[in-house]
Design a protein that fits this description.
Oligomer: single chain
Number of strands: 11
Number of helices: 0
Strand order of the largest sheet: 1-2-9-6-5
Strand content: over 45%
Length: 108
């Protein structure tokens, strides 16, 4: 399990990947060729994956995302150390916070 700021990456076995993941649209890469896991609303900094792979994401705000790295990759961010990832599947979880009366994704 890996954590970079408000993003948690949980390795999962290929057999445990939910079938719906294969039907989700693949997220496009950003202008720098990266797969963006999360973008800071305040800073514009990004948690992004460098390397070959694909990212599928549910469309709602609290939806999950799944990252597949066929050859491994690295998670990079402007203010955090890079994290090397082995090839495989990862479930991406955004940190959430509770405020009275609502639940929201942590703003970076």
């Amino acid at each position: 399990m890996f954590r970079q700021g408000d993003v948690l990456l949980v390795p999962i076995a290929e057999g445990a990947v939910p079938p719906l993941v294969h039907a989700l649209p693949q997220q496009a890469r950003d202008g720098r060729g990266r797969l963006v896991l999360a973008r800071g609303e305040a800073t514009g900094h990004t948690h992004a994956v460098v390397g070959p792979g694909s990212l599928a994401r549910e469309s709602d705000e609290f939806g999950q995302a799944w990252l597949h790295l066929a050859e491994g990759g690295r998670v990079v961010h402007e203010e955090h150390a890079a994290i090397a990832l082995a090839r495989g599947w990862y479930r991406i979880v955004r940190q959430r916070e509770y405020t009275p009366g609502s639940l929201r994704v942590v703003a970076d």
